[in-house]
Design brief:
With about 200 residues, this protein is of the alpha/beta class. The chain contains four helices and five strands; from the N terminus they run E-E-E-H-E-H-E-H-H.
Length: about 200
């Protein structure tokens, strides 16, 4: 079985990442052979919709499950529509995450466990997400061994007021992307109608 693990590095001994849409790397692992392929996250620098883009990428790569620390509602919906389950990590390395998955120690999620845009700023140097307050040390294995719960998102403090403009810009970009996708779908429907 092929699983995707969010990672802060490019091999099985790299630390697993608690972040989904803006982690640095996805490590695709064959759970039977432990052969793997590390792929840089193509959505890490997306101005908006990183979770959706990352989820679509993982599905296109053929992953049958995702192992991560957090997943937002948009990415969760993409995975749910594709029938790809999500399992929560509690820290450790990519190898340890896969071993925990294989032994049934990871719990699957029935919904998003963080709010939309919870990972904003990852890779853009904006200082939100993991770098603030109680989240310090997460990149050094400081998850405390417990996965986040739906009532306690990983990003401890609320997003500061200036982030409102960022969220508006991100939502506007997502809306533009959705309009483009809708136009492509409508164009395809029209083409099929003309052919049939």
């Amino acid at each position: 079985m092929k699983v995707a693990v969010t990672s802060n590095g490019a091999d099985l001994n790299a630390p697993a990442s608690p972040v989904f849409g803006r982690c640095s790397t996805y490590v695709f692992v064959d759970t039977e052979t432990m052969q793997f392929e590390a792929v840089p996250n193509p959505a890490i620098s997306a101005s908006g919709g990183a979770g959706i883009q990352a989820a679509q990428f993982i599905i296109e790569q053929g992953a049958q499950a995702v192992l991560t620390g957090n997943v937002g509602p948009n990415a969760f919906n993409v995975f749910q529509a594709a029938g790809v389950p999500i399992y929560l990590l509690g820290g450790g390395t990519v190898r340890e995450a896969v071993e925990a998955y294989k032994s049934g120690q990871l719990r699957s999620v029935g919904g998003a466990n963080v709010q939309a845009h919870a990972g904003m700023g990852m890779g853009r140097g904006m200082g939100r997400g993991m770098g603030m307050g109680g989240g310090r040390g997460m990149g050094r294995g400081g998850w405390g061994g417990m996965p986040p719960t739906p009532t306690a998102p990983a990003s401890a403090p609320p997003t500061p007021a200036p982030a409102r403009e960022d969220e508006i810009a991100d939502l506007s970009q997502t809306a533009a992307d959705l309009r483009r996708q809708l136009a492509e779908v409508m164009e395809r429907i029209e083409k099929l109608d003309k052919e049939g």
